[in-house]
Amino acid sequence: MKNSIIILAREKSLSFNGYTADALALVNSLRNAYGGTDMPKMLGDFLFNIEVELQNAGVLDEDFSEVTA
């Protein structure tokens, strides 16, 4: 089950170590909070690192869209 895979992502002083479902919720929440406006570079890089790990886990496709099947 893809939601029970644990991933690790780091960017400078930020880190994430948890389940893919929680990582996806974090990414979606922060992207929604910034509503398409610029976020701090370190935060943007951190979210990108999480998204890459979500791709590696098969949760996101190559276009960073959620895989539904």
Give the strand content.
15-25%
Total tally of structural domains = 1
Shape: globular
Low-pLDDT regions: none
Walk me through this protein's architecture.
By secondary structure, the protein is α+β, with helices and mostly antiparallel strands. The chain has one domain (2-56). Helices cover 45% and strands 17% of the residues. It is globular, with a radius of gyration of 12 Å. The mean pLDDT is 93.
Topology:
Elements (H helix, E strand, L loop, with lengths): L5 E6 L2 E6 H15 L6 H16 L13
Antiparallel strand pairs: 1-2
Helix pairs in contact: 1-2
Which keywords apply here?
alpha+beta, two-stranded antiparallel sheet, 69 residues, globular
Concise account of the structure shown:
The protein is an alpha+beta fold and 69 residues long. The protein has helices at residues 20-34, 41-56, and strands at residues 6-11, 14-19. It is globular and about 30 Å long.
